[in-house]
Amino acid sequence: MSDDLRELYQEVILEHGRNPRNCHHPDAPTHAAHGDNPLCGDQLDVYLTVGADDRIAEAAFEGRGCAISVASASLMTEALRGKTLTEARELFKKIHEMCTSDEGGGIDVADGDFERLAALSGVRQFPMRVKCATLAWHTMKAAMEGNAEVSTEDEV
Amino acid sequence: MRLMTDGATSVDLKPAGEARPFDVVRVRRDFPILGREVHGKPLVYLDNAASAQKPRHVIDTIRDVYENEYANVHRGVHYLSERATKRYEAARETVRRFLNARSAREIVFTHGGTEAINLVASSYGRHFLEPGDEIIISVFEHHSNIVPWQLARDAKGLVLKAAPVTDDGELPIDAFERLFTPRTKLVAISHMSNVLGTVFPARQIAEIAHAHGAKVLLDGCQAACHLGVDVQEIDCDFYVFSGHKVYGPSGIGVLYAKGELLASMPPYQGGGEMIARVTLEKTTWAPPPARFEAGTPPIVQAIGLGAALDYLASVGRERIGAHEADLTKYAMQRLAAVDGLRLIGTAPAKSSVVAFTLDAVHPHDVATVLDRAGIAVRAGHHCAQPLMQRLGVTATARASFAMYNTRAEVDALGAALESVMEFFG
Is B225 noted as a catalytic residue in this protein? Predict the structure, then answer.
């Protein structure tokens, strides 16, 4: 395996791809959306359960996809727990920047969230795979905004 | 022999001498791109079902037209327009020969296979189909042979039915025939599956359809580069294929339709070129094929397609078919030996397309790792989501062969897949 493949498929990605966390339909989600990548046919549903304190008590997902998209969804649900919707929106922006900008969006890996989320930055070297990494995040954003469906081909 | 689309090409092509064996090394030298590396590895191009690479003869012909004989067609009285028109029409004759159509007037140039199907759905559909009439497609179809019929259905109140597929990837003829009713007016079905490689019994399909009084459109986009196509022998009413999958340029497609049928169809688009006489009140149509070629056509693409078909003939379509059949058989055996690999589509009548999944590794991850080894395959739903749903997969990987692929490339694919299993397993 070449170095850039090892950079893409870091151990944390492979592990979350194989054993995704929070991969189920929660009892009473307050927000939900369906995400679709029409280019490859991958689909997933993201569920958020926001408590009275306006914080995400539980984030979960269901769906099938490649190692990158499943790992990204799994890591996302872990990172979202306990965040306010405003913080979740901020995180979306940072992840999007990290996966799409040439410089990686100046992510600070010392930032607690990015200790593991930084593993997603490997997609920068694989332009055809960026949407795999961002599908869950776009779906989460759509759920927060009350949109039932989102496609990676929609304008963002 | 100097083989020509019209007498002006600068490339020598030898005729397909029956005695000369197929020489893949020699064929590969005709395709400049095959000499390049990808990610530092020799290119192994196995995405031919998406689009084939171009031989030097096609590239040189296109350059020659632009450098020496380019002008608009059917319009000018000047020298270059006459030359371009001659070459454009010579390409139409080459396509006629390729399909064994009765007349070059039965050959319409479109901008692609998709447009050719849309032309029939729009023109034939609007003129000949009534609310309640039925069209039969199949679960195998590429989206381009589904969506135009859905649009026609919604516009005209038609009924769309889909013939089923067996687990092996075959068309069950009995179940297909049971779909016919007195309201069935058209069958639109692939000649060969772009996902599974299954070759459909075109002659039998046409016979069944005609026995029920229905017309037949065959989508030959996948078949035309692999199979000999004889539209008179098949007796289909329409045959469609695209240029870029038969080693020609993109942006050109072909619609064959039986002459009397084409003559009875109204125009698909309005514009220049397709008229007999225009006043501000009324227009009369030109006869086919001009009636269906509104506006400036893809001139150079059509001439490039002619060059591609000349090249195919010079290598020999039967010998290409035999080579591809050997590769397909070899690939089925080699890939079946990869631990954890499942072949999708194992019909006996199959050519040049091998779809598969790997246990616990998504096709996209497979394709990314293969790409880094210089191997180009397709991963995804192959624009055939209904077939994917029927087969119970969201996506597959697909290796597809052309005349220039080798057993050594199949071995490289097999070895790379084994390393994928090791890495993810």
Answer: no
Give the count of alpha carbons within 13 A of B223, CB side only.
27
Mutation for testing the B interface, residue in A19, A37, A66, A70 having most B CBs under 10 Å: A66
Q: Please check whether residues B197 and B266 belong to one and the same domain.
A: yes
Distance from CA of A40 to the nearest CA of B (A): 5
Tens digits of residue pLDDT in A79-134: 999 999 999 999 999 999 999 887 766 666 667 778 889 999 989 889 889 999 99
Residues B246 and B198 in one domain: yes
Cα–Cα distance for residue pair B5/B307, rounded to 1 Å: 6
Predicted confidence (pLDDT) at residue B8 exceeds the cutoff of 50: no
Instruction: Give me the architecture of the A3-146 domain, per CATH.
Output: Alpha-Beta Complex (3.90)
Q: Which of B368, B385, B419 sits opposite A41 (nearest CB)?
A: B385
The verdict on residue B388 lying in a domain is: yes
Query: What range does the domain containing B388 cover?
Result: 41-51+316-419
3-class SS of residue B166: coil
Residue B118 scores a pLDDT above 90: yes
Is the Cβ–Cβ distance between B309 and B246 less than 8 Å? yes
pLDDT category at B3 given cuts 50, 70, 90 is very low
Boundary residue ending a domain (B313, B330, B350): B313
- Please answer yes or no on whether A41 and B395 come within 8 Å at the CB atom: yes
Q: Return the ∠ at Cα A34 (arms to A133 and B364), rounded to 5°.
A: 35
Same domain, B322 and B293: no
Closest approach of B245 to chain A, Cα-based (Å): 20
Identify residues of B whose CB sits under 8 angstroms from chain A CBs: 39, 360-365, 368-369, 372, 379-381, 385, 388, 394-395, 419, 423-424
Examine the domain organization and report whether B179 and B106 are in the same domain: yes
Given B313, B332, B348, the domain boundary residue is: B313
The rounded distance, in Å, linking the Cα atoms of B205 and B163 is: 12
Cβ of A5 within 8 Å of Cβ of B372? The answer is yes
A4-14 tens-digit pLDDT: 899 899 999 99
Cβ neighbors of A135 (< 8 A, separation 6 or more) are: A35, A37, A42, A44, A65, A69, A72, A73, A152
**Contact across the interface for B424 and A64, Cβ inside 8 Å:** no
Residue range B170-220, pLDDT digits in tens = 999 999 999 999 999 999 999 999 999 999 999 999 999 999 999 999 999
pLDDT of B1 = 36
Please tell me which residue in B221, B225, B236, B383 is annotated as part of the active site: B383
Q: How many domains does chain B have?
A: 2
Distance CA B417, CA B111 (A): 37
Cα separation, B203 vs B170, in Å, equals 16
For A38-82, the pLDDT digits (tens) are 777 788 999 999 999 989 999 999 998 899 999 999 999 999 999
pLDDT at B275 over 90: no
Q: In chain A, what residues touch B372 (CB-CB under 8 Å)? A: 1-2, 4-5
